[in-house]
Amino acid sequence: MPEAALDFADEPPEAQAARIAELNDRYRHHGATSVLQGALRDPQAGKLTLVSSFGAESVVLLHLVSVIDRRTPVLFIDTQMLFTETLVYQQELAERLGLEDIRIIRAADAAVAKEDPDGTLHQFDTDACCDLRKTRPLQTALKGFDGWITGRKRYQGTSRAALDFFEADGPDRIKVNPLAHWAPEDIRAYMDENRLPRHPLVAKGYPSIGCAPCTSPVAPGEDPRAGRWRGQDKNECGIHIVDGRVVRRSEPMNVIVTDAGFRQDDWQGNAVLDLASDTDPNTVDLSAAPGLIRVDFPSFADGRGFTIARQLRLRGYKGRLRAHGHVIADQYAMARRSGFDEVEIAPDLAARQPEAQWQFRADWQRGDYQSRLRG
Amino acid sequence: MYHYNDFDRDFLANRNAQFRAQVNRRIDGSLTEDEFKPLRLMNGLYLQLHAYMLRVAIPYGTLSSAQMRQLAMIGDRWDRGYGHFTTRQNIQYNWPKLKDVPDMLDALAEVGMHAIQTSGNTIRNVTADHFAGAAADEIADPRPVAELIRQWSTDHPEFQFLPRKFKIAVTGSPNDRAVTKAHDIGLRMVRNDAGEGGYEVIVGGGLGRTPMIGKVIRDFLPREDLLPYLEAIVSVYNLLGRRDNKYKARIKITVHENGIDTIRDKVEAKFAELKPLFSGVDQQMLREIEGHFAAPEFRTASTEAFDDAYAADPVFRAWCDTNLSDHRADGYAIVSVSLKKHGATPGDATGDQMRTLADLAEAFGHDELRISHEQNVILPHVHKSDLPALHRALKAAELATANIGLISDIIACPGMDYCALATARSIPVAQEIAERFEELKLEHEIGPLKIKISGCINACGHHHVGHIGILGLDRAGVENYQITLGGNHTEDAVIGERAGPGFAYDEVTDAIERIIRAYLDVRESPEEEFLDTFRRVGTEPFKAALYPKETVDA
Ligand code: SF4
Ligand code: SF4
Questions:
Q1: Which residues, listed in sequence order, are joined to residue A193 by a DSSP beta bridge?
Q2: Among B232, B167, B235, B176, which Cα is nearest to B204's?
Q3: Looking at beta carbons, which residues of chain B come within 8 Å of A337?
Q4: Annotated catalytic, A211?
């Protein structure tokens, strides 16, 4: 197939946004098959390729594509760190589904020789390794296309919760996500009904399969992606992150903990100043601060709030100061000593860690080495 | 020796009661495993490959014989009869049961010890020169100030949930035995031109996957400004340190990414705000603590018995030549007891060995023991006339290995045998190297040489600063060992250079032997130590020995 000139090169951003909106409108109420069918033929979508890892669930999209047009180019990224099982599975599937244009993409030998001669880079820096072995080769391979088809689904993680069928991928390309609305059951049902072969590692406890060194099996009940990049805050490999927006749930937060125990929120004033955990406490305008400042604790492991509180007190803030969010009973003394007056927690946390456990640390002034040393 | 006062005892009793309650709440479900984890870590309890591991702090490496006996008792009663001394002046028990841990902590409290902040993302056990209070080259004893920092950092409310762990080391000697340049904060006790005591403050050093040598943030900090200055550094780091990637979260990365000048400006600004909060009471307390560390009453006696034995007994002589260091008092020596008998696990000591050492410290060593970051036990104050008797007793307990500072005195992390993070074995590699050179009988000819081994990029074995460093990685499921050369952990700290492609598990010992043979070939005289030769000739001769074919091709 001749590499036709790209249909949408140099398209201005507004035009791209409008085109994506139209595409999303057109296919809003369609199922995966018709989205895919439409996209592969729709002149507004341009020249597309399917990017597949030949992982645990890839067979679904490969099958859908093969039924519509088996000449669709399929890009397979071989990081040269994959399980042998994946390589074998890739060949078997390509044959079984009759896919005619599989393009195997790898990092250039020279780049690997320079950046990762021993194949141990992933132990030093997974981001650099993924960049070398996935992101850059894919970017190069995608240059000949107007867009690519991915198997991403909304249920797969908070950063994917608002996924649409069509989205921008930088100024020159779009991404098509035909399976955006599929649930895990749909995937399983589709594989069963079409008798599609499973990746052999699924039976061994790997529900999500990437490179061998960075994938481990997950225990029953664990998040299926928990086995990827264990121990790191890394969830995605750089290919899928577009804006990385995290969608937060809003919950009723109505238990206030003080030295006297639990009570309802008695704050009557209307204004509350909410500070995120990444606030620089020196930039907060205290002259305009209302009588209540709440400092957010997105996780009990994020201790920035303690320093923020202490700094606000150092700067002379005398009003009410409240720690708000995921603070646990064992941190009550730390919160009080850092300058907080009280803690605000969600009802489910209050149920799990009842009043007595917080009262246990109402003796927060006892055994305080720091005040003793300051005198 | 520091003796706990009522405040310390009450604090510890209260803290142990809290942990006992936390263990119960984990068992009844009011704490999730996620929530329990940092709490147990703050109390030194790790979950390892086989089981829980309890890491107990030996503050600034100092122990009395009573404390040593209690450590032995704990090992016998709740572990399998031994303990493992680590590279950070801690002792680890590898087999405790969760339900026993509160009792173990109470047993520690009886002798004024604890496991607080030996792990977790907080300020860790403060380490100091293991020859403190004894070394001939010392300007000042670093232990009182290390004790002050221990108190200040213990349960500091602001700093229990930092971006990452935080380690502080102090040295009082120009010959830095505390590796201050490889710590988050390193403190060197110095005097200014006016003769006043203070500290050179070094920040942002560290080993691990991105090794960095610390940078000087303040070249002279007056003594009384120490605590507010430390508080300023840690609080700047708490807000600025990265929390999105645990491998970029240490302060060395914060310093590297923001630049030392930016960090210094922020720290100085914060310091100016914090300083007025300190009334000066801490300095009074420091003086009180200093009283606890007064030198023992050294005795004057003839060293004739020692001189005779030294002349007559070659085994004793060899041991003296390697295992003794200069003491500042006349007629005294510092004795290093090697826990690295050839072929044994570096750092392991049995309950019996610990009791023997406690007895010997009581009989010959003014009741004091030290643990070094080189995983050896030190009797800091022994009169030379007692050395022959001491040596006999050590021999009987199989503790008289004369290899301090030599090739078989290897630092090795627990590696694949005990550590869940390991990508390769490290203890067996150390054992095999030690045995090889024992067979070759080359050890004393080679002279001072430090080999350090880590079982993964976290570098707990400090391989970057070994004269020869060995790093065990995983290469497509197979252990692969990278070798670095020319590292050094002392005051002119240097990160070793990588020699080239790695070696398989069964090739490492041969590779080390080739390096050593190359050294013996090119050194100018037996007096030229490995590191000096390396500095003179560079990596080339060693690379040629390691990778013979490639040099021919090149
Ligand atoms: S997943 Fe792991 S091995 Fe694969 S490219 Fe990324 S870091 Fe490298
Ligand atoms: S260096 Fe790695 S293997 Fe060794 S103790 Fe540290 S984390 Fe474990």
A1: none
A2: B167
A3: 157
A4: no
Per-residue three-class SS string for A266-322: CCCCCCCEEECCCCCHHHCCCCCCCCEEEEEECCCCCCHHHHHHHHHHHCCCCCEEE
Tokens representing residue B383 in the block: 């009169």
Residue A227 confidence (pLDDT) = 56
The answer to whether A367 contacts B277, with C-beta atoms less than 8 Å apart, is no
**What confidence score (pLDDT) does residue A6 get?**
64
Q: Whose structure tokens read 């010392």? A: B138
Whether ipTM > 0.85 holds is no
Q: What confidence tens digit (pLDDT) does each residue in B164-174 have?
A: 999 999 999 98
Alpha carbon distance B171, B493 (integer Å): 14
Give the pLDDT band (50/70/90) at residue B483: very high
- Give the distance, in angstroms, between the CA of residue B25 and the centroid of all CA atoms in the same chain: 34
Answer whether 0.80 is exceeded by the pTM: no
Whether residue A237 has pLDDT greater than 80: no
Summarised one tens digit per residue, pLDDT across range B168-223 is: 999 999 888 888 998 999 999 999 999 899 999 999 998 877 889 999 999 999 99
Classify A329 as helix, strand or coil.
Answer: helix
Report phi then psi at A41, rounded to 5.
-110, -20
Contact A190, A272 (CB under 8 A): no
Per-residue confidence (pLDDT) for residue A225, from 0 to 100: 58
Q: Whose CA is nearest to atom 5 of ligand 1?
A: A130
| CATH 3.30.413.10 is held by the domain B411-553 | yes
Closest CA to A130 of A206, A77, A59, A201: A77
What residues in B contact A124, CB-CB < 8 Å? 209-210, 457
Residues A64/A72, Cβ–Cβ less than 8 Å: no
B15 touches chain A (CB under 8 A): yes
On whether the CB atoms of residues A170 and A198 are closer than 8 A, the answer is: no
Domain ranges, ordered by start, for chain A: 13-214, 255-373
DSSP A194: T
pLDDT at A248: 28
Give the pLDDT of residue B334.
96
CB B203 within 8 A of CB B255: yes
CATH class of A255-373: alpha beta
Residues 6+ apart with CB under 8 A from B534: B467, B485, B486, B519, B542
Return d(Cα B232, Cα A137) in angstroms, integer. Answer: 45
Tell me if A207 CB under 6 Å of ligand 1.
no
How far apart CA A63 and CA A42 sit, in angstroms, is: 20
Strand partners, A166: A176
Q: Looking at the domain that runs over B304-396, which CATH code has it been given? A: 3.90.480.20
CB neighbour burial string for A189-200, b if at least 16 within 10 angstroms, e if fewer: ebbeeeeeeebb
Average pLDDT over residues B485-498: 86
DSSP string, B111-125: TT---TTSSSSSB--
- At the topology level, CATH places domain B134-293 in Sulfite Reductase Hemoprotein; domain 1 (3.30.413)
Please report which helix (H) or strand (E) contains residue B190, including its range. Answer: strand B185-191
Task: Assess contact for B303 and B327: CB atoms under 8 A.
Answer: no
Mean pLDDT, chain B, rounded, equals: 91
pLDDT in tens, B436-458: 998 888 888 999 999 999 999 88
Identify the band that residue A251 occupies on the pLDDT scale cut at 50, 70 and 90. very low
Q: Would you give the DSSP letter of residue A333?
A: H
Ligand minimally distant from the alpha carbon of residue A210: 1
Q: What is the DSSP string of A130-150?
A: HIIIIIHHHHHHHTT-SEEE-
Copy the structure tokens of residue A359.
């009262």
Query: What is the average per-residue pLDDT within B333-342?
Result: 87
Q: Whose CA is nearest to atom 4 of ligand 1?
A: A211
Topology given in CATH for the domain delimited by A13-214:
Rossmann fold (3.40.50)
